[in-house]
Amino acid sequence: MSVLNGKVVVITGASSGIGETAARMLASMGAHVVIGARRVERLESLASDIQGAGGSVVIQQLDVTELEQMQAIIGAAKSRFGKVDAIINNAGVMPLSSLEALKIDEWNRMIDVNIRGVLHGIASGLPVMKKQGFGHFINIASIGAYEVTPSAAVYCATKYAVRAITDGLQQETVGLGIRVTLVSPGVTESELAESITDNQAREFMNEYRRNALPATAIARAIVYALEQPVHVDVSELVIKPAM
After folding, report:
1. Which of 38, 51, 136, 143 is the most buried (most CB within 10 A)?
2. Per-residue model confidence (pLDDT) at position 212
3. 109 — phi, psi (to 5°)?
4. What's the rounded Cα separation, in Å, for the pair 216 and 21?
5. How far is the first Cα of the chain from the last one, in angstroms, to the nearest whole number?
6. Are 184 and 236 in contact (CB under 8 A)?
7. CB of 90 within 8 A of CB of 64?
């Protein structure tokens, strides 16, 4: 039996890509997955698949930029299962463009989802985990948290921020029984690039994504961090294509 059997895992941005794949994988290992995203119809379809395979799942509409909605999904998990073992702060957007394109609304959307969303996950989950004396935050960043590429200045800035926030959270939770992991995927198959409205950035990304990891590669990394014994804290994982 998997050590994840019976664990309660909240996943944001679970309607596609890494979030969806992680939900399927964790549920197949016996975890209770509590999944949130804005696209409820996608969540319902995913939940149907998970339940059809014998898994445990709860769905909740979620916009991570709204603190009350983030608190609600954590509350739903706690109410239903009595605890929250892990929160995967996965929701993110990536409408790349050059700075001179001045797509300020898109900049603000990235800041709101990619940074504020993670902070809302922490703000909602940390009091619960401190009270119960255990828990695990997994924050999804990007290789963009380590280097900046053309047209990705703002996106990379948000991921640098996630990296910094995660580092700070790791330091502040030492001795509290709370583990914190940063997972930074390289190019991964997902819908992220579909939000790019800048033609030049879209062409660059199409070429850049020719050698992309499957979402299962990132899901396995998440599972690896979650499966470690309570005295083992996997601080940081960077996953890149091998070729």
Report:
1. 136
2. 78
3. -65, -40
4. 6
5. 34
6. yes
7. no
E strand or H helix at 238, and its extent? strand 236-239
CA 101 to chain centre: 28
Which residues touch 117 (CB under 8 Å, ≥6 apart)?
12, 64, 65, 70, 89, 91, 92
pLDDT in tens, 138-156: 999 999 999 998 899 999 9
For residue 62, give the amino acid letter. L
CATH topology of domain 8-238: Rossmann fold (3.40.50)
The token pair that represents 183 in the structure block: 């997972």
Question: In terms of Cα–Cα distance, which of 85, 89, 92 is closest to 33?
Answer: 85
Query: What's the predicted TM-score (pTM) here?
Result: 0.92
Query: For residue 227, which phi and psi values (nearest 5 degrees)?
Result: -80, -10
Catalytic residues: 155
- Say if residues 188 and 17 touch (Cβ distance below 8 Å): yes
- Asked if residue 113 lies in contact with residue 65, where contact means CB atoms within 8 angstroms, the answer is yes
Q: Which residues, listed in sequence order, are joined to residue 60 by a DSSP beta bridge?
A: 36
Length of the chain: 243
The answer to whether 226 and 9 have CB atoms below 8 angstroms apart is yes
Pairwise CA distance, residues 40 & 126, whole Å: 26
Do 217 and 23 contact (CB within 8 A), yes or no? no
Each residue's pLDDT tens digit, 93-120: 999 999 999 999 999 999 999 999 999 9
Edge-to-edge strands, sheet with 56-61: 56-61, 32-37, 8-12, 86-89, 135-140, 178-185, 236-239
Amino acid in position 221: A
Q: Which of 113, 120, 209, 186 is nearest to 155 (CA)?
A: 113
Predicted pLDDT of residue 196: 61
